[in-house]
Recover the amino acids of this structure.
């Protein structure tokens, strides 16, 4: 019996080839999508930041550039309320960059810490899991809840605060202290970074980094180091003598000239520094983001913003991966109130490193300046989600929780985190005032004693202590601390504003008015001080001046309701019922919930 073949007809070769190509392309697409989803270091900009370019520590400077805030005021007999300020706004951002030097290891350590080699996608960095949290990166998976490092640490503090059980928090503190010790040792840090030595780190970027001794003999290095130490100790004459003596023997040494320029820079002889810098700008040994930054900062010191921008742009073009320069240029634009330009620069930096906390912190401050509190908080939270050690953003979140959300417990948790990461006087002072506001006076006093034992207490910390005692109506002690704030830094306006309230509360009205005016002299855009000055004029029955001051305050900050309340009260004194009603309605519309105002509006509406 014959059997016919049962083989199915084969597909044409072009069909098979097409199917294979389709499968390959599909896998490539899936791989690319997975790469961008699970590798944040290479991801594109978050969507909510791209839109910012169409609409503000700070970066590597690691200072707290936090939103200016107000506290709930005391009520005076006239029904008006003063506005007090708890957070100092830094205004001259650029000055902090002059002579700034950056640790070249910082970014290497930062990127290593954020790697996720086990790819458990849990949002927690593996080094943090293994060295600090002491969880098992292979087993711990929070992807279902979306918990990242910032939220993980916050939960530890919050649980300890709510349950009074600090066992997990104590373990975290101990582990974190060991971690800091590990990366603070240069030898261990090199091992931690999987790099042979610190010297190798410098050699990796020999032509663009911060090695000030390139090409020098050992003998010259010793003398240059002596000149550098003298300069850093403020002995500029010794530094000049050493360098100028060497230049007689080595007149063509670009490195010696650079150190000479730095010495003139430190002496504030900026024109001499600029002349030297520009004479060596094309030397391939020295050409670096640092040299560009030094030239730029010298130009800004003599008021030439155009040249500052020019050199920062050159640096960004030639060395786009140096993260510090984006914060410097953005800070300049912010200081000039060119917020769109500042946002655009920060977004350029985020394309290089989309996990850098400094950029999100500055973007958040710009959102604050634009009155967008929701975006501001989200950006601060983005900063700590990428780097839980980023103390400035924790401070700023604490301020928002306190001043905007009225969440004192949440504010305390964030303040405690910031304090333990980097216990500066101001961060300790926030813990002091928050414990006091929560009625936990024993803990408040404990940290106040710790603060007063610290060196170099800043004006912002004294200002915070002054506010603590204003809350307790202890005006004598409040005045003492506010005057210490002014003595520490007489250029800060906030303590003058707060001192004015203390003086007014102790029946020294004329002194109060002088203090408000001083705050305005220091910051002509100080809406809160104008509002308080309006109250001063109201008490003096100088109503036209009072209305003018209140109007200035509302023009500077249209969302501030207290100036509208002040204007309404003045019209009440003038028996101008329509305008009184109009401005009380405005005050309520912008957030006033004073029962006196609400009751008065009911009467006026009958």
């Amino acid at each position: 019996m014959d059997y016919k073949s049962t083989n199915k007809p084969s597909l044409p070769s072009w069909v098979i080839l097409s199917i294979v190509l389709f499968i390959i392309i599909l896998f490539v697409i899936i791989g690319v999508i997975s790469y961008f989803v699970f590798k944040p270091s290479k991801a594109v900009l978050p969507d909510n930041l791209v839109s910012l370019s169409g609409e503000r520590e700070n970066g590597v400077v690691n200072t707290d550039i936090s939103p200016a805030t107000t506290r709930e005021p005391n009520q005076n007999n006239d029904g008006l309320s003063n506005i007090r300020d708890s957070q100092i706004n830094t205004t001259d951002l650029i000055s902090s960059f002059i002579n700034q030097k950056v640790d070249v290891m910082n970014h290497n350590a930062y990127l290593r810490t954020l790697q996720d080699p086990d790819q458990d996608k849990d949002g927690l960095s593996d080094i943090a899991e293994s060295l600090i949290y002491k969880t098992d990166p292979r087993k711990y998976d929070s992807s279902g809840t979306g918990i990242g490092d910032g939220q993980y640490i916050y939960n530890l503090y919050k649980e300890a605060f709510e349950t009074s059980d600090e066992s997990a928090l104590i373990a975290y503190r101990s582990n974190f202290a060991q971690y800091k010790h590990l990366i603070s040792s240069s030898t261990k840090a090199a091992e931690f970074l999987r790099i042979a030595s610190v010297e190798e780190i410098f050699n990796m970027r020999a032509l663009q980094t911060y090695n000030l001794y390139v090409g020098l003999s050992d003998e010259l290095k010793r003398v240059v180091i002596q000149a550098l130490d003298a300069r850093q100790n403020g002995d500029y004459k010794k530094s000049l003598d050493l360098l100028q003596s060497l230049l007689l023997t080595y007149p063509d040494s670009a490195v010696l000239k650079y150190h000479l320029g730095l010495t003139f820079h430190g002496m504030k002889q900026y024109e001499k520094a600029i002349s030297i810098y520009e004479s060596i700008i094309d030397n391939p040994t020295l050409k670096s983001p640092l040299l560009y930054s030094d030239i730029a900062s010298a130009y800004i010191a003599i008021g030439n913003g155009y040249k500052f921008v020019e050199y920062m742009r050159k640096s960004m073009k030639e060395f786009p991966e140096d993260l510090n320069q984006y914060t410097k240029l953005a800070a300049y634009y912010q200081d000039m109130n060119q917020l769109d330009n500042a946002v655009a620069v920060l977004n350029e930096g985020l394309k290089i490193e989309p996990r850098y906390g400094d950029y999100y912190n500055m973007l958040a401050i710009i959102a604050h300046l634009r009155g967008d509190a929701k975006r501001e908080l989200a950006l601060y939270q983005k900063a700590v989600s990428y780097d839980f050690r980023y103390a400035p953003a924790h401070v700023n979140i604490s301020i928002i929780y306190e001043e905007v959300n009225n969440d004192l417990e949440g504010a305390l948790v964030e303040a405690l985190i910031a304090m333990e990461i980097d216990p500066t006087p101001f961060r300790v002072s926030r813990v002091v005032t928050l414990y006091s506001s929560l009625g936990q006076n024993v803990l408040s006093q404990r940290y106040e004693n710790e603060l007063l034992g610290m060196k170099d207490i800043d004006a912002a910390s004294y200002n915070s202590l002054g506010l603590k005692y204003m809350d307790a109506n202890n005006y004598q002690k409040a005045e003492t601390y506010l005057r210490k704030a002014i003595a520490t830094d007489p250029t800060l306006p906030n303590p003058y504003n707060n001192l004015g309230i203390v003086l007014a509360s102790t029946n020294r009205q004329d002194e109060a008015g002088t203090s408000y005016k001083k705050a305005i002299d220091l910051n002509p855009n100080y809406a809160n001080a104008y509002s308080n000055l309006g109250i001063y004029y109201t008490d003096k029955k100088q109503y036209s001046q009072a209305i003018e001051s209140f109007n200035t305050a509302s023009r500077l900050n249209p969302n501030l309701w207290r100036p509208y309340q002040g204007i309404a009260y003045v019209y009440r004194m003038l028996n101008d019922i329509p305008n009184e009603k109009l401005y009380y309605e405005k005050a309520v519309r912008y957030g006033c919930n004073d029962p006196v105002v609400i009751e008065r509006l009911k009467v006026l509406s009958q």
Summary: Residues 1-9, 27-79, 88-111, 192-211 have pLDDT under 50 and may be disordered. The first helix runs from residue 13 to 38.
